[in-house]
Amino acid sequence: MADSKDITLKIDDRDVTVPPGTLVIEAARRMGIEVPSFCYYPGLSLQAACRMCLVEVEKAPKMQTACTLAAMPGMVVRTGTEQVRQARKAMLEFLLANPTAPTRAGSPKKNATSPNRNGLRRSTTTRPAASCVSGAFAFVTKEWTSRRSASGSAARNR
Predict the structure, then answer these.
(1) Which of 58, 64, 121, 142 would be a feasible disulfide site paired with 76, CB 3.0-4.6 Å?
(2) Do 24 and 55 contact (CB within 8 A), yes or no?
(3) Is 117 domain-assigned?
(4) What is the mean pLDDT of the chain?
(5) pTM for this predicted structure
């Protein structure tokens, strides 16, 4: 039974009830909806560095990252629209074409204090985007394999 404090939102036209503070990516996973992400790991700090988890949120002016977006009551989220697919494809191409692009998704390199654009110093952790490539490769391979098997079964059924 849902707790009276639980939040109900809609993801891909299906209602889901989650505890307050649940991220949209986790709510989608509870429903069996896969939202790709290379920089999100439960229990680690939120990064939104890879931008692969972009989703459309009704009444939001632009796409949002599901790995940093907390579920809100009445929220309507779409994970599989053409605009979302195109944005994810563009981000994947960027990550693969720019293997030295920095992401803040935990790494072997640690810059204890790096100045930001305002000259303030804060602790940062960086790693090259190449470290995301293994995740990207797995995602691309899975997509390619599923499309190939689907087209192969269609050819066999002719």
Answers:
(1) 58
(2) yes
(3) no
(4) 76
(5) 0.63
For 34-50, write each residue's pLDDT tens digit. Answer: 999 988 888 888 888 88
**H or E element that contains 104:** none
Starting at the edge strand found earlier in the chain, the sheet holding 109-115 runs: 102-103, 121-128, 109-115
End-to-end Cα distance, the chain: 48
Q: Which residue has the tokens 């790693």?
A: 127
Asked if 35 and 53 touch (Cβ cutoff 8 Å), the reply is yes
CATH of the domain at 35: 3.10.20.740
Whole domain around residue 136: which residue ranges? 7-106+123-156
12: burial class by Cβ within 10 Å (0-12, 13-18, 19+)?
Answer: middle
Cα–Cα distance measured from residue 74 to residue 77, given in angstroms and rounded to the nearest whole number: 10
Strand order of the β-sheet with 7-11 is: 14-18, 7-11, 76-78, 54-57, 64-65
3-state secondary structure of 50: coil
Give the CA diameter of the chain: 65
**Residue 111 placed within a domain:** no
